Amino acid sequence: MKLLGRNISLRELTNLLQEMPLEDLLDRVCASQEVDFAAVRVGSVVLDFLQLTDMERFIDQQFEHLETLEGADALPLWAKIWPACLPLAMYMQRQTPNEGDRVLEIGAGLGVAGLFAAHRGFPVVVTDNNPDALVFARINSLQNDLARNVEVRYMDFFDGKHQGQYSHIVGSEILYKEAFFAPLLHFFRAHLSPEPSSEIVLTADAGRRVLRFFVAAKEYFHIARSIVSRPEDRTSFQGSSPGTRPEPPKRQIFVFRMKHP
Question: pTM here?
Answer without folding.
Answer: 0.89
